[in-house]
Design brief:
heterodimer; A: 562 residues; alpha/beta; FAD/NAD(P)-binding domain; Flavocytochrome C3, Chain A, domain 1; Methane Monooxygenase Hydroxylase, Chain G, domain 1; B: Ubiquitin-like (UB roll); 5-stranded mixed beta sheet; 33% strand
Chain lengths: 562, 107
């Protein structure tokens, strides 16, 4: 089957839906493709609370203050153009979402803004109770359905971007529930596929976040930036086992109620590490990289909780106050056998977000004309460590920008699609076969264990080299033709295509992490502790004749740079 | 602890059939955890839907669990037999996967 559109948006999360809306508003026809169901998969729907924007509703604020916090958290590596855009345009998008009745929590007649770590003042809006992601997704899905010109296609997994004469001209896709190969002609393509947390065993995003967009971009000739910076969320739920709730749910509890992080001696330890953070004011403000470090170090010193993390306790908070702050969530916890007033839970760092991603200019365009990226899929805005609350804001801001720019690009040119541009990938899909091969689901689990153990928040040259070798072994094990079972709805074929992407992305992360011989933000080399001023530099990954290539470039510190 | 999952297999038009899988589990694990263990350790061809794994946000893993419509991510695995079948009022695609995509989002 073949489809034609002006703008193809890949990924139906917050960034993708915003991109589709803005592309349509600019006058382009849009296909919005999601490998799962539009507005249900991805990371946005999982968000529970904070969305940062300098609205000045709670206390006076200015986007320059938000930018200062974002740049400080980024440890010198932010692309100032992207960071400034995020902070300056954030308030507009938050108010636009408000006008679409997303339901930001209010207090005394104004939008309520909560304090989050790394921010100099209360700046984060949210939807009660822990419903930010579902509310945002529902609101955007409603808009996308209501405006004309957007064709939504669920269960459409994009396998490769089509490139002709160096320009993006569409894509090749697999429609999962029918097994059909679909080619798409598009004058502009927007990658909005989110991050890569699925590369890790314990992660907080959906199973769709395997770094697809990074692999698509690399194979299309675009570059990636800052791939070594994987953010671990310090207090992901560890024990007792909790079902039906997002593992990163504890942060909002801490914002509202001030939970205490305790080690096995039931002693608070955050302050032991607070001096390391120049932005710490001595309260609960350890940024995510430092909190992750603190918990790992406590566990390493033999002061971890039984399941291998830290205790998080709300026992000092009166039961009625817990109920007032979290209403029905308290009942969901009770169904899991957890009573916060009576017992602590165990938490540990969990893969949460990727700072790195597709390298774009101030128009969200990659070095491949017609190929754009937005949301978590792009890299650079958050440098070496993302500030809490910036992820949903960047989904809105970069999504809208990418959608508008992609539409303008598309409307200014004629159709560049030709079947030659998709032939290679169509042939790849047709070559899928049932043959003896590894269990693809087990191979994904092996890859996740490898990345967690050797390319996690703490790395050494030795673990990274071992990872490189193991990744090449897995790459040769799965072969260069797809493994398949039976079509349609073939989970083996999907696994194989996922592995093709995941392995390429895992190798990109590992190569960049091995080259960076210092510790900065989310990248901590135990054999190279401490920040090295000479490394205030971005690493850029590309794929040249099938090989990964790494180069270095000074960060863009001029926010007006063209 | 061991759980035995009796799972509907196949595509429309085929005679009804089930397969039985035995998985080790820890108390607290979900039915979705069990299905993912089946794929990883026994049979990667088993098809079922999910995206968010654990958060009950994507709402994709709905199926018949012991005859009741439930989310696999919030139902707990139990010792002994559990019967898993696709949603009865939706068109079957394969195994436990049914056509739940809104009509205007289909190809």
């Amino acid at each position: 089957m073949h489809l034609e559109t002006e703008v193809l948006v890949i990924g139906g999360g917050g960034a993708g839906m915003y991109a589709a809306l803005e592309a349509a508003r600019t006058g382009a026809s849009v296909v919005l493709a999601d490998r799962s169901i539009v507005g249900r998969g991805g990371a946005t729907v999982m968000a529970q609370m904070t969305v940062a924007a300098a609205l000045g509703e709670q206390v006076p604020d200015h986007w320059e203050y938000h930018l200062a916090d974002t740049l400080a958290a980024g440890r010198g590596l932010c692309d100032a153009r992207l960071a400034a855009m995020l902070c300056e345009e954030g308030p507009h998008r938050i108010r636009e979402m408000d006008s679409w009745k997303v339901g930001w929590a209010r207090e005394d007649g104004h939008i309520k803004q909560a304090q989050a770590p790394g921010h100099d003042r209360p700046r984060c809006v949210y939807v009660d109770f822990l419903s930010t992601g579902p509310a945002v997704s529902r609101t955007l899905r409603g808009r996308v359905n209501a405006v004309g010109g957007i064709r939504r296609i669920s269960e459409l997994a994009i396998v490769d971007i089509a490139v002709r004469d160096g320009e993006a001209c569409g894509a090749t896709a697999l429609h999962l529930s029918t097994g059909q190969i679909v080619t798409i002609g598009a004058k502009a393509v927007v990658i909005a596929t989110g991050g890569l947390t699925r590369l890790y065993r314990r992660n907080s995003a959906s199973a769709n976040m395997g770094g697809d967009g990074y692999a698509l971009a690399l194979r299309a000739g675009a570059e990636l930036i800052d791939m070594e910076f994987v953010q671990f969320f310090p207090i992901g739920h560890l024990a007792p086992r909790l079902v039906g709730m997002d593992p990163i749910m504890w942060d909002p509890f801490r914002y509202k109620l001030g939970g205490k992080l305790l080690n096995a001696e039931m002693r608070e330890f955050e302050t032991d590490y607070a001096a390391r953070d120049t932005r710490s004011d001595g309260r609960y403000v350890l940024t995510r990289d430092l909190a992750t470090y603190a918990i790992f170090k406590e566990v390493e010193a033999g002061r971890g909780s039984p399941a291998g993390g830290a205790y998080l306790s709300f026992q000092h908070v009166p039961e009625a106050e817990i109920r007032r702050a979290f209403g029905p969530v308290v009942d969901r916890l009770a169904a899991n056998g957890i009573n916060l007033a009576a017992q602590p839970v165990e938490v540990a760092p969990i893969a949460h977000y990727h700072m790195g991603g597709v390298r774009v200019d101030e128009r969200m365009c990659t070095r491949v004309p017609g190929l754009f990226a937005c949301g978590e899929a792009l890299g650079g805005a958050n440098g070496a460590n993302r500030l809490s609350g910036n992820a949903i804001t960047e989904a809105f801001v970069f999504g809208a920008r990418a959608g508008q720019n992609a539409a303008e690009h598309a409307l200014a040119r004629s159709n560049g699609y030709s079947a030659d541009a998709t032939r290679c990938t169509v042939d790849l899909l047709r070559s899928a076969s049932r043959r003896d091969g590894p269990n693809t689901a087990a191979t994904i689990a092996t890859l996740q264990a490898l990345m967690s153990d050797k390319v996690g928040p703490f790395r050494t040259g030795r673990t990274l080299q071992a990872a490189e070798t193991a990744l090449m072994e897995i790459t040769s094990e799965i072969g260069d033709r797809p493994l398949a079972a039976e079509s349609p709805c073939d989970p083996v074929l999907v696994d194989w295509l996922d592995l093709r992407n995941m392995l390429l992305v895992a190798r990109s992360v590992t190569a960049a992490a091995l080259a960076r011989t210092e510790s900065r933000g989310a990248h901590q080399r135990e054999d190279h502790p401490g920040l090295d001023a000479a490394w205030e530099i971005n690493q850029i990954v590309s794929l040249e004749s099938g090989r990964l290539r790494l180069r270095r470039q000074a960060p863009t510190i001029d926010r007006n740079a063209a | 602890m061991k759980a035995t999952l009796i799972v509907h297999r196949g595509v429309p038009g085929e005679p009804e059939r089930t397969e039985q899988f035995e998985v080790a589990f820890e108390p607290g694990q979900s039915v979705l955890d069990g299905l993912r263990i089946v794929r990883r350790d026994i049979d990667p061809t088993l098809a079922f839907r999910f995206a968010c794994i654990n958060a009950n946000a994507c709402k994709e893993c709905m199926m018949l669990i012991d005859g009741k419509v439930e989310y696999a991510c919030t139902s707990r695995l139990k010792e002994g037999l559990t019967v898993l079948a696709p949603l009865p009022k939706k068109a079957l695609v394969r195994d436990l996967v049914t056509e739940i995509v809104p009509p205007d989002e289909r190809l």
